[in-house]
Specification:
This protein is an alpha+beta fold. It contains 3 helices and 4 strands, in the order βαβαβαβ.
Length: about 120
């Protein structure tokens, strides 16, 4: 059964290209470790909600934009094995080195989670 990791991130709008560059460097690692696909999206139509919304969820400031991303895995076991390998202290992949490829956003405000699809249409 497919498994999805989803992310919502507040990114300084001035760092749009840095975000794209960071994703371009990191995302192939997910694919090499078994991900089916990785999607990175930049806000275009993200309205303010009445009670909550994407911006409030990540405490975005007026000078930040919302990035919405997901990774599709063939199953949770593949995802778990990939994450274990990526987070291992033995991982020497330079793409994962934050000194070489720093996150262009505040990772503490990123929201993320793993999901099991319940409805899938073509």
């Amino acid at each position: 059964m497919p498994y999805i990791d989803g992310f919502v991130i507040a990114v300084p709008t001035a760092n749009r290209q840095k975000f794209i560059d960071h994703a371009t460097a990191i995302d192939p690692v997910f694919v090499e470790l078994g991900a089916i696909r990785v999607i990175e999206c930049w806000e275009e139509d993200v309205p303010d909600g009445t009670l909550t919304d994407f911006r409030r969820a990540v405490q975005a400031t007026p000078d930040e934009s919302i990035a919405f991303s997901w990774i599709e895995w063939p199953d949770k076991a593949t995802r778990d094995a990939a994450m274990q390998k990526m987070m291992s202290p033995d991982n020497t992949d330079p793409r994962m080195d934050p000194t070489r490829n720093p996150m262009p956003f505040d990772g503490k405000r990123m929201i993320f989670g793993g999901f099991v699809p319940v409805v899938t249409l073509p």
